[in-house]
Amino acid sequence: MPLLKVQILNRSFQLLKILKSNLKKMQILLSYGDGESAILIAYKNERIIFLLESNKKKNAKSRLAEMQVLADDCILLQEDCDRKLVSITSEYKKEYNIHTIKRQLLEHLNNT
């Protein structure tokens, strides 16, 4: 295998490991309800995914079973993180709505 393909595969493998690690961190943060920190990691993951897609285009013919398993793990972790983010976002909206209603009630009571 040419050296460039090996380098691309090695870089892709490293990126997948980083992505998986980041997704596990997101999963932990989301389990504690820390959506803000999880979003910061999600932004980093977007860049990693972009680089992986770029590497895929450069070396579309080369596939390693281990990389595929790692990529599948990342997909499952991402799906779990997405579900948790939706749930946490929903909770944030509820809290915001409660706060808004309380504020409006206080304003109304103060005006009467």
Task: Please provide a brief summary of the model.
The protein is mainly α and 112 residues long. It has helices at residues 3-31, 35-58, 65-111.
Structural description of this entry:
- This protein has one domain (3-111).
- Helix 1 (3-31) runs antiparallel to helix 2 (35-58).
- It starts with a helix and ends with a helix.
- The chain has helices at 3-31, 35-58, 65-111.
- The longest helix is centred in the C-terminal third of the chain and has 47 residues, at 65-111.
- The protein has 112 residues and is an all-alpha fold.
Low-pLDDT segments: none
Give me the strand/helix succession: HHH
Count of alpha and pi helical runs: 3
Shape: elongated
Helical residues, percent = over 70%
- N- to C-terminal separation? 80 Å
Task: Please give the largest β-sheet.
Answer: none
Strand percentage, roughly?
under 5%
Specify Rg, calculated over alpha carbons.
21 Å
Number of domains: 1
- Mean pLDDT across the residues is 83
Q: Give the tally of β-strands.
A: 0
Helix/sheet category: mainly alpha
Index terms:
112 residues; mainly alpha; 3 helices; 89% helix
Write the SSE topology:
Elements: H1 3-31, H2 35-58, H3 65-111
Helix pairs in contact: 1-2, 1-3
